[in-house]
Each structure stands twice: as C-alpha cells, then as structure tokens.
Amino acid sequence: MAYPAAPATLTRGWLTKVPAITATFWVIKVLSTTIGETFADYLSVNVGLGPAVTDVMMFAVLAVALVIQFRTRRYTPWIYWLCVVLISIVGTQITDFFTDTLGISLYLSTAVFSVVLAVVFVVWYRQERTLAITSIDTPRREGFYWAAILVTFALGTAAGDLATEALNLGFRNGTLIFGGLILLTWLANRAGAGQVLTFWIAYVLTRPLGASLGDLLTQSKDFGGLDLGASKTSLLFFAVILVLVGREQVLANRHGVAAKGEGPLGGRRPDYAWAAAGVAAIAIIGLGLSSLGSNQSDGSTDTVADQGANAAGRPGAGNGAAAPAGKQPHPTTRLGNLGRFATIVRDVQASVARNDLAGGKARVKDLEVSWDDAEAGLKPRDPGKWHQLDGEIDDVLTALRAGNPSRADCAQRLTTLTQTLNRFDGV
Fold it and tell me: What is the pTM assigned to this prediction?
C-alpha cells in the first residue's frame, strides 16, 4: 500500500514530517511494534521498575520525543521512528492498564478503542476535510495524525490480545491470521479500495502482527516458538531497524520525503530489496540462533523444563525437600508443564523457612521473569487458570517485597501458589 508522492512544494516545506509509505515503512513499523513491547516488559520486569514507574517513565519520554518531533522543520527519520516506538509502548500500556488493572474485558476495550479511533477520524475530517497521509502539512493535522497513531496501537493491542488470548488462537495462528488480513488489505488496495481506508486498516493490523511475530521468535519451543528469548529478538530487530532507518535518513537528507525514490539508493525496486533483505536477515539469523540453541540443549543433561518436571516428581528434589503432595494425575487445565515455576517456588519456600526473606526476595525475581517470558505461550492455553496463577504470583511478589515482610504471610502465599501449581500442572 503506497501513496502517491506529495507535491514537491509540500515536501520541501518544514511541516511535511511523515515518511512515504513504502515496503521499508511497513517492515520498520512491524519491527518497532515488537521492540516497543519487549522493551517495556524488560524495564518493568527484568530491571525491576514495576508497571507504575515504567508507565510514568514512558509517558514522559514520549512527551519529550513528540516535542522534538513537532519542533523539527522536516521529516527526520530517527525522531519519527523513535516516536512510533514510544507510542507503541504507551499504547500497549494503556490497553494493559484497562485489562490488568481495571479488569475491563478485551471485548469491551476493543470496542471502546474502535469508537475512540472513529471519533478521532471524524473530528479530523470535519476540521481538515482529508485524512490522507500526504496532507500532514500543518501543526493541527500533525496533532490529529499522532493522536490517531496512539489509538491504533491501543486498539491493535486490544484486538490482538482478544484474538490470541480470549479466542485462544495463540501466537502462531495470530501471525498467520493477521499476516493474511494485511495481505487481503493490500489486495483490496490494489483492486481500487480507498488508500486512506486501507492504510489505516493495515496500520492497526501491524500491531498484533508484530506482537505475534515477536512471540513466535521469543517463546519456548514447548509452546511452538523458536526460543530466541526477548533479549536476542530485541537486539536482532533493533539492528535491522537501525540499518533501515539509517537508509531512510540518508535518503531524506539527500532528497526529502517526496523524492525518496530518487537517487542511487532510491527507487521502488531498491526499496523492495532493502525490505526483503531485512526480513530475510531476521529469518536466517533467527533460525540459525534457534538451531544453535537446540544443539546446545541437546548436549546437556536436562533442560530447564525437564529439571522442573523431575524435581516436581521425585522425593528429595529441590533443596532436600520432598515433592509437594496433592498433584492430580489429570489436571483440569491445558497449561502443560509448570515444573520450571514449581522449582523456583520451592527454592523461595526453602529460603522463607530459614527466615531468609532477603534470599527469598532475590530468588522470586527469577519466578517473575520466567512467568512473564512464558505469558504469550501459556496464557492462550487456558486464560482463566493463567489469570488465577498470575494473581497468586503477584500476591507472593507483594508479600516478599513489602517494606516489612511477614514470614508467616510469605509462607502462606507460597503454600497457596504451590498447591495451585500442583493442581494445574499438566505433567
């Protein structure tokens, strides 16, 4: 889906600050979506800032980036795409706040964001008489543009989560479904459907596509992913983004946005080639790293999951403690093997039993990170049971991280979590 180039007078003007819609635009957009979501999770969980601090920080950084974007006189790729990445983070955080904090269903949040986006478009059109991307040539139009971008990310997050979690499609099916919908949108555009309509539909769909693609690469092979992990996937995507945005910056400096296709590095065919090269690099490197990880795992005695399963099933495993009783031979969930989490919980229990609450607090960090990393693979299998475990894990984290933690309260929370893990474990 591409728009005709804007008039040269607008392109050279100081308020034309959005890129031409090309193949590389869509590749960067999808990759930026995954980077944004992964980075927010990294700050919240791995760094330990927590959702509240991360939310405030990302809103503040986005505000600064948008001020810079509005103050620039022409399209500047690095600041434009920084704003897109940050908006992808904030849009995701808005949806997560509605879903996780306020407990609003994904059905309702998807409907609400759809209405909000429609309102933005109606007001935008009534004020400006156009929604075309090539017409972003006044401060007010740029304001409407970024408002629409923010809502599309919130809507895309809600719709994607609804499809992959509430409807139990999973990230593999999500990748195929949302990729197929984007292909249909492109075909509709080629068949004569409105460019404005097809652009915004595709823009919404790239958000859940990017999230599903990221999960496909990061999730464990037990869940059908390539098991690259969030760090490797983020670095890989970030490297490709840097190359493509660097090229965008060179072309913008030389020719401006409307003349993006000119020059020795420009043209439609080179643009397709660069976009294809970026996708191919991700596929080749991703598969290579996944295969390398498999070979390293094959050479070891046990994988993390195997160790968890073995520890859960034999006496004396896990710091000399007997395996907890009460495990059902036929669990009532589809969550599968939860042994890796049970192993960490037993370690934390052992620390609490010794009244080493500081050690338990340090070890429970591994549970938080491991549980967060596995969310995309586990949650679609049984969302209700996943939410129950998620709440009980939050209770354990809250108890251990209290200003003056109570040993009895920590032990009780851990016992409740252990019983639920044993009851839900599918091994």
Answer: 0.76
